Amino acid sequence: MTRTIDLAVIAGDGIGQEVVAEGLKVLDAALQDVTVRTTPYDLGAARWHRTGETLTDEDLAAIRQHDAILLGAVGDPGVPSGVLERGLLLRLRFELDHYVNLRPSKLFPGVVTPLGDPGEIDFVVVREGTEGPYVGNGGAIRVGTPHEVANEVSVNTAFGVERVVRDAFSRAAARPRKKLTLVHKHNVLVHAGHLWRRTVERVNAEFPDVTVDYLHVDAATIFLVTDPGRFDVIVTDNLFGDIITDLAAAVTGGIGLAASGNVNPDGTAPSMFEPVHGSAPDIAGQGKADPTATVLSVALLLAHLGHDDAAARVERAVAADIAGRGTTPRTTSEVGDALAAAV
Ligand code: NAI
Ligand code: MG
């Protein structure tokens, strides 16, 4: 646990700016005797339009020096698809070795879920963040012709799979239900799938009190809707994790609540915490954005830095706020103020 938090802040574009302001408000309110120092980084669509830059080596070197990163959202409709995803977001994840993409899914009392009566939902997805089909190992030839060849290779290393599986086991071991579900498709993706399966079986020996389950990814989408209560910790690869975490966010109340952490568990570089949603150009600048996902990301940040009590206070404040939400819409800063006061 640190007495100061030296935070890099990438508020980004659109509602990113609005929700991060509220997240910082709650962060300050949650901590006693801890100084938060923030350094803003001008990154995202606005910077790209102005300079053509996504993330320079200088930006990266400066960001590396901080204890953690809080990110709002980046992007606007004027930036071609892939530019900021590859040049900024994925580059940060890869360069800072964020091999654990952490996405908790909890159904807070009072939240409207599209499911009829799902019961209690409280699980966390540990998605691999540095390998899989997202590494850019591919290429295309004869583009635009009937003979085009397009390859996107899924990279799975024994090292990469083992470290994320180990992280998932230790998270499962620390939770009351101690259950880990591997999600893959090892009946079809036999090479990668069996590496994941064997790794889970082997690491399980070190965590004998953790129960292990396996689901093919297509079956996992069924159970996320019909029986989400069966999940405790899910470990999966980069692509499957990307898809099932959006489904998980949808069943637990949607994008305004979904938080995430891009975690470097070894601490060799700062971890990055962000709401799952984007810059929402349709509501940007109107004070309509729900800052709750960012505030819950701040709770993950606090827990990661060892401030567990403060993290728990933030989560309790969010739970109480959600339970008491009426039908009158509140502005972004009204929600932030209420959460900061409750913390
Ligand atoms: P989006 O998440 O920005 O918006 C989808 C829908 O959800 C919109 O109707 C929006 O108004 C609503 N929404 C999102 N966050 C909300 C919040 N906190 N409170 C209330 N409503 C909220 O996804 P979209 O529209 O696909 O992308 C918009 C831009 O954001 C694009 O440029 C995209 O590339 C970028 N993006 C950036 C991400 C990031 O920085 N990590 C992640 C996803 C998208
Ligand atoms: Mg996604």
TrEMBL record:
Q: Which InterPro entries match?
A: ICDH/IPMDH (IPR050501), IsoCit/isopropylmalate_DH_CS (IPR019818), IsoPropMal-DH-like_dom (IPR024084), LeuB_actb (IPR023698)
Molecular-function annotations in GO: 3-isopropylmalate dehydrogenase activity; magnesium ion binding; NAD binding
Q: What is this protein called?
A: 3-isopropylmalate dehydrogenase
Residues that bind Mg(2+): 218, 242, 246
Q: Which organism is it from?
A: Georgenia satyanarayanai
PROSITE patterns according to UniProt: IDH_IMDH (PS00470)
Catalyses which reaction? (2R,3S)-3-isopropylmalate + NAD(+) = 4-methyl-2-oxopentanoate + CO2 + NADH
GO terms under cellular component: cytoplasm
Where is it located? Answer: Cytoplasm
Co-factor note (free text)? Binds 1 Mg(2+) or Mn(2+) ion per subunit.
Record's function text: Catalyzes the oxidation of 3-carboxy-2-hydroxy-4-methylpentanoate (3-isopropylmalate) to 3-carboxy-4-methyl-2-oxopentanoate. The product decarboxylates to 4-methyl-2 oxopentanoate.
NCBIfam families per record: PRK03437.1 (NF002898)
Family of this protein: Belongs to the isocitrate and isopropylmalate dehydrogenases family. LeuB type 2 subfamily.
Which cofactor names does the annotation list?
Answer: Mg(2+); Mn(2+)
Q: Name one GO biological process term.
A: L-leucine biosynthetic process
The subunit structure is: Homodimer.
Keyword field: Amino-acid biosynthesis, Branched-chain amino acid biosynthesis, Cytoplasm, Leucine biosynthesis, Magnesium, Manganese, Metal-binding, NAD, Oxidoreductase
Under which main EC class is this enzyme filed? oxidoreductase
**Domain Isopropylmalate dehydrogenase-like, residue spans:** 4-339
Which amino acid positions bind NAD(+), per UniProt? Answer: 278-290
Q: Mind telling me which residues the site (Important for catalysis) is annotated on?
A: 134, 185
